[in-house]
Structures are given as C-alpha cells and as structure tokens.
Design a protein that fits this description.
Radius of gyration: 26 Å
Distance between the termini: 35 Å
Number of strands: 0
Largest sheet: none
Structural class: mainly alpha
Order of helices and strands: HHH
Number of helices: 3
Shape: rod-shaped
C-alpha cells in the first residue's frame, strides 16, 4: 500500500497539479486579452474608438475560469485523499513500532 501510495497516487497528483497550472495560465491569458481590449492607451495607439470587449473574449474568460475551477476541485480532492491516506499510513507505522517494542521487551524478559 505504501509503495502504491508513493508511486501511483503521487504521480497522479503531480499530473493534476500540472494540469491546474496550465489551466491557470490559460485563464491568465484570457484575462490579459480582456485587459488589453479595455485599455484606452492601447486603443489610442491603434487609433480605434472605444468599442466594447467582444463577447468572444468574455466567453473565453468564462470558459477558462470554469476549466480552472473544475481542475482546482479535482486536484483538491486528490490532495485531500492523499493527506488522509498518509495519516492512515502513519497510524499503521506507529502501531507496528509499538508492537515491535512490545515484542522485543517480552523477548528480553525471557
């Protein structure tokens, strides 16, 4: 169980954390597009009139935010489960150490 916990589950967690990071980068890029579209200085440089932010850009931000939220929850669940399992493994190891101490103490009495 312990080697499975280290090899498989932590590998999955690392993968999900990477996906979360990519989702955050996509969200940041989408938000930057909105900021750029709303920035009056950039609009003046491009000699454009003030136009509302295209619905496509706003929709992209919403979609990116939803993807980030989903990935955040999935990663959070994996980390919570890993934390619980790590606690269980620590309890089993402590129990094993206590039983080894008792065994050795009884063996020394003989």
């Amino acid at each position: 169980p312990f080697s499975n916990h280290l090899q498989v589950e932590w590998g999955d967690i690392t993968t999900e954390k990477r996906r979360l990071e990519l989702a955050r980068l996509d969200l940041d890029a989408a938000k930057a597009k909105v900021r750029t579209a709303r920035n009056p200085e950039i609009m003046q440089q491009n000699e454009q009139k003030a136009v509302p932010v295209p619905d496509l850009v706003v929709a992209q931000v919403r979609e990116s935010q939803a993807a980030f939220d989903r990935q955040f929850e999935q990663t959070k669940l994996l980390l919570t489960d890993a934390d619980r399992k790590s606690g269980e493994i620590c309890n089993y190891l402590e129990e094993f150490i206590r039983s080894q101490k008792n065994y050795n103490a009884q063996a020394n009495k003989m």
